[in-house]
Amino acid sequence: NAGVTQTPKFQVLKTGQSMTLQCAQDMNHNSMYWYRQDPGMGLRLIYYSASEGTTDKGEVPNGYNVSRLNKREFSLRLESAAPSQTSVYFCASSEGAGPYGYTFGSGTRLTVV
Amino acid sequence: QKEVEQNSGPLSVPEGAIASLNCTYSDRGSQSFFWYRQYSGKSPELIMSIYSNGDKEDGRFTAQLNKASQYVSLLIRDSQPSDSATYLCAGNTGTASKLTFGTGTRLQVTL
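YS: structure for the whole thing
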């Protein structure tokens, strides 16, 4: 099915470990996003890529890095995981600037112990 | 203060009734608004978008936008138990390609 694919779906890390969350879309969308969702906080933007070759910080970028590998793929890296990064992470894509909504991936549930 | 505000609920309505969900926003430059439905443990799913003042209808759903008062609403007619979910309001505040989300309103449709 067309859409946004995220891997892995679940992950447990120890404090200080690193990992990369992968995201790929097959809708030829220009823009891609990484959000985290925490109870009572809603969806908060970590990083986004308005178009291939560009990335920008969102609301909560500290502790994360991103790579827009090509038009399809946008990865999120945690270099040294902390318990505060325990969350559900969603990747999303859209056609870009304008009246376009997002298509979300199925999410990654990350626990840092 | 968040740029997009929603009452967290829960909003409880009986089956067959109209559910009314509301959202306010602070950035007058916002142009497009979206309603997402999120079932527990699942990802958000786009159900409605609205860009112009007034009403937009799609099946049992009606989105309403009032830019002068800076509010957006979603009406769900003939509510069904399957409509029980959290509804997220989002607007393209700031950079046009980014969306800012409210914290969501949990809707419970009771039998």
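YS: worth flagging: Chain B touches chain A at residues 2, 8, 31-32, 34, 36, 42-46, 49, 51, 88, 90, 92, 95-104 (CB under 8 Å).
IM: good catch. Also Residues 28 and 97 of chain B are 16 Å apart (CA to CA).
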